[in-house]
Amino acid sequence: MRQRICLIVGAGPGVGMGVARKFGREGFTIVLIARGQQSLTEYVRLLAQESITAVGYAVDIADLAGFKTMLTQIEHEVGPAQVLIYNAAVLTVGGVLAIDPAQLLSDLTVNVVGITVAVQSVVPQMRAAGSGTVLITGGGLSLSPFHEWTSLGIGKAGARNLSYALFAELNPLGIHAATVTIRGTVAEDTPLSPANIAEKFWQLHLQPKGKWEAELMFPLAKANQTMATLALGNSLGRIRFTVNPKVIDGFFKNKQLMAACA
After folding, report:
1. How many domains in the chain?
2. Residue 106 located in a structural domain
3. Closest CA to 152 of 254, 18, 259
4. Is the per-residue pLDDT at 247 higher than 60?
5. Which of 52, 202, 209, 244 would bridge with 24, disulfide CB 3.0–4.6 Å?
6. Residue 261, domain member (yes or no)
């Protein structure tokens, strides 16, 4: 039986590991890509404890040439991916007036352009096989922007647009491209836990051709969820953000937010 490979770009302790566990339990060999080798080694160790075969490759996605070379290396060493999950994201805190344009461009390289590099690398093998799945982690900022997270909002909007373009372009090739739009903060012991979100990725992967969806939105549930509502004023009125209190506490103390969905 041919080895089934799920390539996860942007592996982290949240959505990345949630998806790795789900697809690994379903029989996929997991290939993780992240910037830090130390974290990757730990993720592979944790997955091995659950009898999931996984390997990790360290690369900075902002280095597009290095990223492309790494994807080619993975294909040669592990094999072609049947599933590509693009979960990489960078958040730089700051509004339009404050953000360094060079930083915004760097963020967009990871948040949007990296998707193109990954797709161009793996789709030829999927096309040859006549099937494949490309899933992109989306976010609520693509629908409801927040001025202090302008960079990530633009990135998620671009990723969503790109995902819809891929849905149309890859459909005739027998490849299902879609995005999971996570409208809230990823946190354990909530409806938006990594495990629950991973089920949505799996749901899209299992959809039969002819019933493929381009997007699956995962809204916040109201019941049994410990959340806080942050009201932020702007020139258009009031923006209401539903967020995890611990995330907000860390944001105001450190002026930066670790990627909750990574």
Report:
1. 1
2. yes
3. 259
4. no
5. 52
6. no
- Predicted pLDDT of residue 245: 38
259, part of any domain: no
The answer to whether residue 262 is domain-embedded is: no
CATH number at residue 36: 3.40.50.720
Which residues are CB-neighbours of 42 under 8 A, at least 6 positions away?
none
Tell me the Cα Rg of the chain: 18
Token pair listed for 160 = 């969503």
pLDDT for position 258 = 34
Name the band, by pLDDT with cuts 50, 70 and 90, for residue 249: very low
Domain that holds residue 90: 5-254
In sequence order, the 6+-apart residues with CB closer than 8 A to the CB of 22 are: 195, 198, 199, 201, 202
Least confident of 66-80, 187-201, 239-253: 239-253
Cα–Cα distances (Å) from 210 to 136, 177, 213, 235, in that order, read 20, 13, 9, 44
Residue-wise pLDDT tens digits, 200-216: 999 999 999 999 999 98
Predicted TM-score (pTM) of the model is 0.83
Strand order across the 54-58 sheet: 54-58, 29-34, 5-9, 83-86, 132-139, 175-183, 215-219
> Which of 128, 131, 150, 132 is CA-nearest to residue 141?
150
Identify whether the C-beta of residue 121 lies closer than 8 Å to the C-beta of residue 175: no
